[in-house]
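Ticket opened by: R.M.
Priority: normal
Category: complex prediction / small molecule

The reporter submitted a protein together with magnesium ion and asked that the result be attached to this ticket for the collaborator who will pick it up next week. Submitted input follows.
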Amino acid sequence: MRRRTVKTPFGKSKQMPVFDIAGRAVAKPQVCGAQETGSKSDNLPNKEAGLGRPPPLNPSHALFVDVDGTLLDIAIHPGAVRVPPNLPGFLQSLEVRHGGAFALVSGRPIASLDQLFRPWRGAAAGVHGGERRRRDGSRADLDPGIAAAALDRIRAAAIDLAASNPGLRIEDKGRSVALHYRSAPAAGPRVERFAAQAVAEAGAVLRAIAGKMAIEFVPRGYGKGGAIAAFLAEPPFHGRRPVFLGDDVTDEEGFAEVARRGGISIKVGPPDRPTAAAYRLSDVSAVHAWLAGQPAG
Ligand SMILES: [Mg+2]
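Result attached by the on-call engineer:
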């Protein structure tokens, strides 16, 4: 049996049988119908409550991983996240293991990913697919086009909104604008009303994506599903079975894209809402262990 040592971001190194399923059929993902994203329900479908652990990773898979809430625990604001010291090296090992077919797919700008995971600078999609960097460093960013003017108006209005709502934080990513209310939870309904009005005024060029205690305004053509599809159209991703891990509403399009291609879609976190994902891992630690090929603890 092929054995391989994989270091986890926690610094432990274990001898374990990993990737010994090459060529063996794995469970076919159960694809849930399209879900209303952002909705909350106390009466979740059985499927969500009963999502199982994903099958083991195979080096032939194309691996796509969200960052906040998936690779990193969520912090009070995006700048406050803690990166385990061995995580950048772990990302490099994943890249090697998957023959280069590994990419981060995040709402953060790529510059922020580079800062967090230095010296790692691999394939990545940032700003929900608005930015895309191939493994060779070349870029395939999406032009915000006519949405840029609408984003400018939202930026100005968001500054006024933040001025009257202490704790509300504006994250300007250039190609998108996010409003975070984790430090001002009471402002949530006001932010939602602001978003509804802003999108109505912007017409068809923008959409608002609701995340965890945040709403982000992005040009309508952006999305994690599109970013994954773009990677899969090119080497070294092309022809590989895709795997995507994510935790938030913004990842649902990625789950759906991967499911359409017969891939493995994995929701990270508790069963708190309907999802298009076929599998579940409980938290960030479980993600690290699963990526490293460790058996369930
Ligand atoms: Mg996330």
